Amino acid sequence: MNQHPLNIPSPRWISALEADRASGRKRLAVLVDPDHAKSPDTLNWIQDPAFSIVHTVLLGGSLVTEGSMDHTAQLIRDRTERPIVLFPGSPNQLTANADALLFLSVISGRNPDALIGKHVESAHRVRALGLDPVGCGYILIDGGKTTTAHYMSGSLPIPADKPDIAAATALAGHCLGMQCMYLDTGSGADQPVPADMIAAVRDTVPCPIIVGGGLRTPDAVMDAWAAGADLAVVGSAIEREPEFLRAFAATNASA
């Protein structure tokens, strides 16, 4: 596993996130889709001073058709020492050029392949690549439209007005031993995960909570943090407007 000087108490990524949760520190992650980052120029924003506010680079997508996980991970590695954590949509989205892997089980759905089937296919390769797998309960939430994540997972999202279902689902995942929960409306969603749903999950499980999908503004990120998210994930907003990180850094500086 690659080591990076992040001044964290443990080389394991999930241990660092757990420590941050215990101390009340909120973190920001950026999701990079290999299909949208095939040339070095598309990742120049990583070298902007404002990138210093980013804790983690997530790499992957619900559907990667042309991009290379190895190539994109190396482009990121050449630009930053921040940890690279895989966010795979399928067993072929793996690379040894990463620090950890979110071993995602779509616990909000009832598709056996997304719950355990794809994991069986990829487990030996994950170990062979030396990746640090993090058991993650992935919970899809309705964000106002059907996203690629909904379609590719073959599962219905939890309705946005049902925080009790999300909380019960997260609790089940926690009881099964999952190390973190990921609440997501999917890339390009019209709406983010509602604050009351994040809060309901936060009140129910002690593990770190990751929230992504529809976080288009610095205020949306800070709302997710305030509701109980430990790690907020921004993806499409960066692709559309690389200045997002500068705006976010400025907002944090003035807060």
Report on this model:
Helix 6 (195-204) runs parallel beside helix 7. Helices cover 36% and strands 16% of the residues. Helix 3 (112-128) links the parallel strand 4 (100-106) and strand 5 (132-140). It has an eight-stranded parallel barrel with strand order 1-2-3-4-5-6-7-8, surrounded by six helices. It has helices at 13-23, 69-77, 112-128, 148-153, 163-175, 195-204, 218-227, 236-240, 244-254; strands spanning 27-32, 56-59, 84-86, 100-106, 132-140, 180-184, 209-212, 231-234. The protein contains nine helices and eight strands. The protein has a single domain, classed as FMN-linked oxidoreductases (TIM Barrel, Alpha-Beta Barrel). It starts with 12 loop residues before the first helix and ends with a helix. By secondary structure, it is of the alpha/beta class. The longest helix is centred in the middle third of the chain and has 17 residues, at 112-128.
List the helices and strands and how they pair.
Layout: H1 13-23, E1 27-32, E2 56-59, H2 69-77, E3 84-86, E4 100-106, H3 112-128, E5 132-140, H4 148-153, H5 163-175, E6 180-184, H6 195-204, E7 209-212, H7 218-227, E8 231-234, H8 236-240, H9 244-254
Parallel strand pairs: 1-2, 1-8, 2-3, 3-4, 4-5, 5-6, 6-7, 7-8
Helix pairs in contact: 5-6, 6-7
Structural class: alpha/beta
Number of domains: 1
Question: What name is given to the CATH topology?
Answer: TIM Barrel
Oligomeric form of this entry? single chain
